[in-house]
Amino acid sequence: MKIASQAEQAHACVIGLTGGIACGKSTVAELFTAHGAGLVDTDRIAHQLTAPRGAAMPAIVASFGADMQRPDGGLDRAAMRALVFAEPSRRTELEAILHPLIRSAGLAQLKSCAAPYVLLAVPLLVETGHYLPLCRRVLLVDCAEDIQLQRVMARSGLAEAEARRIIASQATRAARLAVADDVLDNSGSPAALPAQVAKLHAHYLQLAAQPNQNP
Q1: Is the full-model pTM beyond 0.70?
Q2: Label partner for 66 (CA 20 to 30 A): which of 84, 105, 172, 199?
Q3: DSSP 8-state symbol, 120
Q4: From the CA atom positions of the chain, what is the Rg in Å?
Q5: Roughly what angle, to the nearest 10 degrees, separates helices 77-86 and 88-112?
């Protein structure tokens, strides 16, 4: 596949990082970067593209209208979220604008990363499958579904029905587990995360030192 050859040029050891909403991907990514891992975060790239003067904003305004733009020029995320939930076809339209730009920026960041290995954080890694050919391994940040629901409600101040709707729009926990090579359990206290991350970091350093070996 073309994207696989791009991955080889970009970085020899890419670890796909994913997980459902509120499972703790950002916290885990921070722990890995503290050990010296590289990080390419597609959510962060998307926010940059839709910030004031972001590269995606002209196309978004042209397709969706000025109502989707805040006074400062950035994307009105609440308005867009409401629209794509009400009209799923508009989500596809938005993705057609954003995904090529995110992928291009992500590949550029991978290419410039000098760390021994790099985490490629993609919330919808399983759902889209677009980035899987880039990854030597897939790391899933996992937690029990009832805990995930509680965290989504607490973090975003959402009612239970709305939180369940967001969770249901993503891949199931079973689907993510089926794709994962490594699973980091974040159902308990955050204090349990550093030891798990340290163990995986050591493993990924070994993997990075043997780029031609199978994981």
Answers
A1: yes
A2: 105
A3: E
A4: 18
A5: 130
